[in-house]
Amino acid sequence: MDLDALASARHDDWERLDALSRSRRLDGPEADELIERYQGAASDLSLVQTTAGSTALGDRLSISLARARLRFTGTPENPLRQLTRFAVVSLPAALYRLRWITVAVAIVTFVVAALYAWWIGGDPRALAALGTERELRQLAEDGFVAYYSENPAASFAGAVWTNNAWIAAQCVAFGITGVWVPYVVLQNAQNLGVTAAVMFAYDEADAFFLYIAPHGLLELTCVFVAAAAGLRIFWAWVAPGPRSRGVALAEDARSLFTVAIGLVFFLFVAGLIEGFVTPAPWPWPVKIGIGVLALGGFLAYLLVLGGRAVRAGETGDLVEFEAGATRIAAG
Fold first, then answer.
1. How far is CA 309 from CA 25, 86, 222, 259, 320, in A?
2. Interior CA angle at 266 toward 264 and 270, to 5°?
3. How far apart are CA 331 and CA 324, in angstroms?
């Protein structure tokens, strides 16, 4: 084989491979071209080594291929950079994809809670079935408020955080069953409605809303998001579309596992508010304002960063940090 003739014929292709390998940013077509030219150069190298053994031309091609391979496989990154990409790309994208299911879960929760409160509040027998007059009055006038301050703030915040994070993780992990998430949603709505009915019955509606609002705005939203993630995984199994069920389930489960990890942080914030802000002797506008700011920050994170990431093509998959960050930087 004439190596000079091969080098002359393939020179432009190899130069283009080197140019793509050195490029700081690649769009979709360029990334595909890089793979295609890598495969072509690998075939050329195999031909050179088979017919001529070790040569300067083969060494040159080996270097080009190593550089290209490093470009599309990536190099180990600093963990801090990976964490940053997770926080600003993958997590908000995964949350954004769930926004409408989250709204649906919230509506169902509040409707069911309102129905429970209306039913129990309007039926003395249903109210009496919850406990004795003394027990219900004690809950409404003392127990509900005391719950937030009967334990040290730090330990209470930690207990609330771990409990809610565990519930969120269960929603994502067991969402495929199609049963667990509706059970959690309905149980949460029932507890909310029953508690509201008791508080309303003893003229403590103001205490109910005042003590729920500071932490509940963010906490309940996180639970709604976790439920939405579980339902999304279930639906990927029921109606995979053009994908096979296995592929659909694997793809959605990977991206929505991102949600379970991210909610740990937001629930930690909600736990801190519940432990340190809700029972604090501060003016209620201040305490509720903190809750509103926490929810506002979460929604801005979801809608602004998440919308930007999704428009750039990010799915929220944990394995797409590099590709997602590159697309957003380019856009």
1. 17, 11, 20, 15, 12
2. 110
3. 11
Q: Where are the beta strands (DSSP E) in 58-191?
A: none
pTM for this predicted structure: 0.73
Which of 199, 232, 214, 327 has its CA nearest to residue 272? 214
Question: So what's the pLDDT on residue 327?
Answer: 40
Q: Are 262 and 94 in contact (CB under 8 A)?
A: yes
Burial class of 229 by CB neighbour count within 10 A (0 to 12, 13 to 18, 19+): buried
d(CA 158, CA 174): 24
Helix (H, G, I), strand (E, B) or coil at 71: helix
Higher pLDDT, 257 or 243: 257
Mean pLDDT across the chain: 86
In this predicted structure, what is the pLDDT of residue 74?
Answer: 57
Secondary structure letter of residue 90 according to DSSP: I
Please report, in angstroms and rounded to a whole number, the separation of the first and last CA atoms in the chain: 46
Token pair belonging to 3: 């190596």
Q: Which residue has the tokens 């169902």?
A: 108
pLDDT at 47: 81
Residue among 272, 280, 124, 147 nearest 208 (CA): 147
Confidence grade of residue 72 (pLDDT, cut at 50, 70, 90): low
